[in-house]
Amino acid sequence: MSGNPPGTLAAAWLIARKDLAIEFRSRTAFLSALVFAVLALCIFYFAWDESIIAPADRAPGVLWVVVAFSGLLGLQRSFSIEEHDRGIDALLVAPTSRESIYLGKAIGNFVFLCAVQAVTLPALVLFYNLSVGEPLLGVAAIMVLATIGIVAVGTLFSAMAVNTRMAELLLPMVSLPFFVPVLLNAAQATTRILGGRPAAEAWPWLRIIIAFDIVFVVACTMAFPYTLEE
Amino acid sequence: MLSTSGSLVVEASGLCRTFGRRRAVDGVDLSLVAGESLALFGPNGAGKTTLLKLIAGLLAPTSGTVCVMGRALRSESSSRASIGLISHQSMLYRALTSLENVEFAARLYGLESPRAAAMTALDRMRVADRARTPVRALSRGLQQRVAIARSIVHQPALLLLDEPYTGLDAAGAAALTDMLRDVRRAHATLVLVTHNVDEGLAVASRAAIMLDGRFARQDDCAALDASAYRAAYRSMIVGETPPPEWTMPVSA
Question: pTM score, two decimals?
Fold first, then answer.
């Protein structure tokens, strides 16, 4: 029964759909990330004196700390579901390129992180009394751009860490230094957007995030096949 | 995806694989033509699974080459469509149902009717009645049947099986043996790793014993006395002196 194996992007989409179906069934990583995000927002809210720093001034920093750490929970799970019964071997013997496995995992992680952020952002608005409207759309756009970079790097390191004995510890240790450029620039851009400044003021920070996204999506896609070597 | 009868399906030359200082596979030469089936016996740690992974392209050889249907699997992803692998692990996703697991594989291989192909494969392994059961709810034996269905859904020209009878009950083992006979009739090539001489000889046209990463001997199954082979193999792997006729050179 000869078939016509799907191309790189079609295979990537199949893998992403499979990962999302698994997460939808179990919801373990999603619920953990969600609980973490809401709890962290709550703790940060009560940790500061409102009369010294206004909640709206704290919001950008809090948002990106929460995004980074809740995202790690999803990234951690990305390759651990392949390791359990060596599902990764079935992917490796299938007529799909290594790059499509990486892209599929990255797409799955991107959707996962966006889903978590879709709950985190309204929670942030609620806790920190932010105005709903145009600035929030701007923040959502920044979140999408930053998530691409976080996912690009995190997916690669998740594949590298999964075969180690300290995967849970190693992933944050190696990923977070790479997340820093994205997080700093995203926080700066968010501060300007939430502060009601013109969008043009946020553009220099967004340019850096876009450059990071392009460089790391390409570099990590090329590097990924080497992480699969035993 | 079946090859023409008589054409070379597997060709390995001087195949070596080391892990640290240990040579798991040490200079193996192997040629298998379409329709041929090789039963690979040997004690634990002899290098059987490593050899299978090298043929499947899951491991890169330290030295030597391996081609399947004239192509290097590791560099050409499309050529991997010709192989099916049954491993020690089920390679299934526990949260998905049996049907979803097999259908996912069918889609990766680009089959025209993935759901129908998946159902056919499950039916062949007599596990179609569990198609909508999540894999985590299946017993070890039923999971193994689904794993086998996943690996044969695209009707590979080369089927690599690592201890496929593990965990199967009598019905599962019979379904597997029937499937392997069908596969042979369709001129597919088999490499079957097993510790059970009877299971191996039941489906193989050639038998080989691996010791310390090398073929200690290879035989044509048609010329073998199964009971003598079983007894001699047992004495060989428990470290007893093999019978005099077993010291003859390895046949080509």
Answer: 0.89
